[in-house]
Amino acid sequence: MRTLTTDVLVIGGGATGAGALRDLTLRGIRCALVEKGDLTHGTTGRYHGLLHSGGRYVVKDPQSAEECARENEILRKIMPHCIEDTGGLFVVTPADDESYADRFVAACRRTGVWVEEIPVREALRREPLLNPRIRRAFAVRDGAADSFLATHANADDARRYGAQVLTYHRVVGLERVGDRIIGAVCEDLRSGETVRIHASFTINATGAWAGKIAAMAGLHISVVPGKGTMIAMNHRIVNTVVNRCKMPADGDIIVPIHTVAVLGTTDIAVPDPDVYDITPEEVRLILEEGECLVPGVSRMRALRAWAGVRPLYREQDAGSDRDIPRTYKLLDHETRDGVAGIVSIVGGKWTTYRLMAEHTVDLVAQRLGVTTPCRTADLPVEPLHDSAASAPRSSARTQFAILASPFYMLGHRLAEVEADDSYGDLICECELVTRAHLEAAIRSDGTANLDDLRRDTRLGMGPCQGGFCTYRAAAIWHELRNGTAQAAGAPPATALIGHFLQERWKGVTPTLWGDQLRQERLNELNYLETLAIDRLPATGRDTIVQGRDYVIEEVV
Amino acid sequence: MTIIPEDHIEQSLEQSLDHCIKCNICTAACPVSAVTDLFPGPKYVGPQAQRFRHERQSSPDESVDYCSGCRVCNEVCPTGVRIAELNARARARLAAERGIPLRNRLISRSGLIGRLGAGPHAPLANALLGFKPLRLVIERTLGIAREAPLPAFSRYTFRAWFHRRRAPQTTNGASGRQVVYFHGCSANYYEPWIGKAVVAVLEHNGFEVLLPRQRCCGLPLLSNGDFAAARRAHEANVAFLAPYALRNIPIVGASTSCTLTLKEEAPELLGMQSDAVRAVARQTFDIFEFLRTLYERGELRTDFRPIERTLPYHPPCQLRAHRIGRPAIDVLELIPGLRLVETHASCCGIAGTYGLKVEKYRISMDVGAPLFETVRRSGADLALCDSETCRWQISHGAGVAARHPVEILAEAYGLVT
Amino acid sequence: MRTTIVIGAGLSGLMGALALAEAGLRPLLLAKGQGATHWTAGTIDVWGADERSPREALQTIITSRPGHPYALIGVHAVEEAITRFRALTEAARYPYVGGLERNVLLPTAAGALRPAALLPVTMAAGDVRLGGEMLIAGFRELRDFYPPFIAANLAAQGIAARGVYLTMPPAFRRREYTTVTFARMFDDPAFRSEIGRQLRAQRGNATRIGLPAVLGLRDPLEVVAHMQNESGAQVFEIPTLPPSVPGIRLFTLFQQAIERAGGRLQIGSEVIRGEGQDRRLTTIWSEAAARQQEHRVERVLLATGGIAGGGIRTDHAGIVRETALDLPVRAPANRADWFAPRFLDPHGHAIYTAGVATDAHLRPLGAADEVIYDNVAVAGAALGGADTVRERSRSGVSLATGWAAGRILAGLVS
What we know:
- By secondary structure, chain A is an alpha+beta fold.
- Chain A is 33% helix and 23% strand.
- Chain A has helices at residues 15-26, 62-78, 99-111, 120-126, 147-160, 210-216, 280-293, 333-337, 353-368, 387-390, 412-420, 435-443, 450-457, 469-482, 492-508, 514-530; strands at 2-11, 31-34, 50-51, 83-84, 88-92, 115-118, 136-140, 143-145, 164-166, 169-177, 180-188, 194-204, 223-233, 241-244, 253-257, 260-264, 268-269, 302-313, 328-332, 342-347, 426-428, 433-434, 545-546, 551-552.
- The longest helix of chain A is centred in the N-terminal third of the chain and has 17 residues, at 62-78.
- Chain A is globular and about 65 Å long.
- Chain B has helices spanning 25-29, 31-35, 42-50, 72-76, 83-98, 102-107, 110-117, 122-129, 132-142, 158-164, 184-190, 192-204, 219-223, 227-245, 256-270, 275-283, 287-296, 317-320, 327-332, 361-378, 388-398, 405-412; strands at 178-182, 208-210, 251-253, 284-286, 309-314, 338-342, 382-385, 401-403.
- In chain B, strand 7 (382-385), helix 21 (388-398) and strand 8 (401-403) form a beta-alpha-beta unit.
- By secondary structure, chain C is an alpha/beta fold.
- The two termini of chain C are 27 Å apart.
- Chains in contact: A-B, A-C, B-C.
- At the A-C interface, helix 14, helix 15 and helix 16 of A face helix 4 of C.
């Protein structure tokens, strides 16, 4: 058993946890973060990527709207490289109540959400696939955010200031002495080792899992995991975030993020954030609603569907999930439950993660007697330095205007590959992941399987869904991690292939037909006929495998 | 209930990228990436790069400029991605952002060049263009490769000949059957004898040949990314031709690239969809496609003299892009004694104006090398090909004469042209 | 003009077109593009779902699974097809070896052992039962072949193997490489000599050397012989992910044989509909610029493939169609039944058994088993009733049914 001591322990490696970690370090507070999977393994890594303008909540939840509007501007300033300035539209489709639009504009004015009505013609010029029968259109400052990158950037920044980040550490118990929490006991999923972490203060930033963690301390928090299902389309059918101008409901938004467009979402309460399915009805509903915004969308190629669980905090009984406020709640268990040394931060949304972290750390700092003010609203988050990005560039690089933009742009990766002439080094061809990018990710100690590499690099997230790059990435993994010391038995990389293919399969099946089904059959030809991986020892096993530096959990 | 199959619904060119299953068959078949690594291949610059392009942002890539536009990728793609068209549009975006070099403006205006060079002064123009030091100067100043095959201007234009000649006598009497001939720039300014052969063959089969005004089809403009000028050219041609097309009078051409442009390239790439545009497209035929249809209906005259020859035949990329098979072979194999041997080379390399450019000349010759070799090995002193720039390239690369199959057909009919 | 039409350019279409051409019917082969040959290993897999020999498996299938494509045509037709195929490849100086008596186990690019009934002789030394240490050699420049990984997996199965990377000779360096660029380099004797020298230096105790299946497009036998001379060991090819060089070789040799026999290939022309009456298909149309191309037909061999090939297509509403002639398709009734939860489910996914049902003459059948067209025969993956990828019978079924369909349409089968 290992033991380590810190001042503040953050549980949860999502946006809020990583944000809190950075905030703590910037105030000079020693801290560590534990996450049961890879960073962003939970809800942060499973959302559509919307940087809210606030427009979505102006009528229903004005406080959230105000918070979003303010944070939107701050995030654009402190982490532009994680944000694409797509802009947003709210459009009134023939299916929508026209009277909402005026209420919407009035509410925007009240809440400070920037809005401007534009001619329908102009909206259609910007987005040619949009329903030509829309009646009004409003521009807002929605954007798209790379939540993987942002969370990693926060965590890396915190690391630079001395914080510890322990991924694949699952909290199995909180240590309670009397009415005080003094740390946690974790299991290191890679070594199987027990790790005891002593901390003066613990921040429960586990979102939909907050109730489960709190229960370990004998505390009760009513978190309703609200499942939101999304569908990623194969390409950017829109380049602007497009919302229906109506009260928030199912399937009323399309978010362009990286190379895909995400149709979302549903909202269904589920009893357990770890156990849920995507139903055919949800898929049908999202596509049907999507037709109102982009006619023909259900015949375009859908890549996959997935769901995230919103951490909705319920103080009293609300009607439906959509009626629970989207604002966040900081629970001070000392005043609320008489248990000191722990706070829980629940609710909220990605756009307000920084504010949630600030608010949380304010309280923790006060308890620890630290008076340094929060600096996260002003101090930019350092971009990640990967080997490929820091490699010397040819002077030709300046030919691509896109590379000069402080914000992320869709063409960014392609411009980099072009500037470096690195097209011969593409391992994931769909998402333009070069060998250098992949090797850097494999070498970083945070990654424990190919799905982690995916979150780091976008490996396997494009049209072929791992049909070609799974094999390549696993083989490269083998060379970098197992190549020299040849242990007996099948190399772990073999099991990683089966694991990643299954993870991809799980996501594609809800929307599998047409071109994507054709792709999957080609992928079968690759993996069964040409590579015959099903005949290898150690693929296709259903057991949880734990090795020295990789983690494979069953994906079903 | 009628079910509309989803893949037959008209998809925009850009959306056809959804069909790509990353099999790289196109990359394996691409004749350009086979000979140069400056071109990363059709899948990369096509459906793959397209997902990273944003209509309202500047181009993130420029290697697409090395696509020659030969369309072999479209031909082999098993899933129906419109790769060549995606590339053409991406090149046009680059041209719009970065400007079109003077050289490309010049070589894409084949009508203008033809008007300047053809006529009584043609020998002088030809002598000048055949003068090596001058070609070197042109290469240095303009970037037109000095070895690149340029055709010789004709001393008279086809149109001048057509209007001067004696009124034709249709052998079948006044059957009332009319056909419009779209001669294109090459038959008018460089190879009027091909136009004459077309007219002779059509009249031999009882057609009255009409010759409305016409402009360059605009294909060189499209492949050099000058979409604005290409649009003007196509609008003009549609205005000239639609009156005939709307009366169901076929428009026949012997240049496979001109006819492809009228049929598909201009309307699709430029997004032109009017009834007149569609009518012109629907009524446009490659000459052998037209003759083959006549044959199928039992209306083609088959009074051929035997020609005891075996000749290599290269179906040009632009003909294959019509997706109509090998109509020239289908018709010419009716001629007793004549045997055509298809070359099976994917591309001659010239790709219109691509091989004229100094930075692409070598690539173009390397692309064509297997074809040149096949032609040379055939031992024949003559090769057949339906497209003019390809014929010039074959002659240049293989050192044998190259003729249009319609010339052989006219010969078999005993028509002196 | 040509009234015998083959639709599809995969193995079944090519084999069918060959049969029709050799019967003097001057077939025209129409295909949307190149396809399945370029996607797969290039071996002929007759049966590999279990340890039975292909012949044994065939005999059981024929009695126990009447709807299986093999049962429709019988063992004799399979044998005939193989005989013709072997003669064809022999004549093209690219002979296939093996047969129905036993499967050969070949290493894959993942180091697994894959059963095949027939294989190009360029792969023959990979037969694991031959014994002897293997050297697996490749190039870092080829992103679809990883010798250390292959060797580690082989070693885990008790096969002595070592994986090494070779150095790209400076004269051949470029920005990007595909399997086909490698194949063209191996066509060049200078490249081969250089690589052969490296192999000899690396060989150690290995008696055979596995290389990616990129050993030339022009004359692979010559390339293998050259490499063996230079390296002093047996040399064999290991198939890679698409585009498959052995597949391209197959396509090319078929194309030449079909054209020599009077047939013709028209690639890039998708057949999109057909029309007929009184159980005879009379006309089909292929997609073309500005207009569809009309083809009057006497007989049609439908070999458009399954879900991968594009002959069978599904949509979001759960409809399953046959794409060229809109023939009735047998498929799982409910979309919920299409997939198993696990990608690698040993029984496969039910949707992949979708296809056209036929009678013993491979004529398409309707829902009540009535013949739709007398002058149409269906072959290859467009036939339903089996998941040939899971059975490891895909190429065997294509080869045999393609041949059988061609012979039937040519009137050579009673």
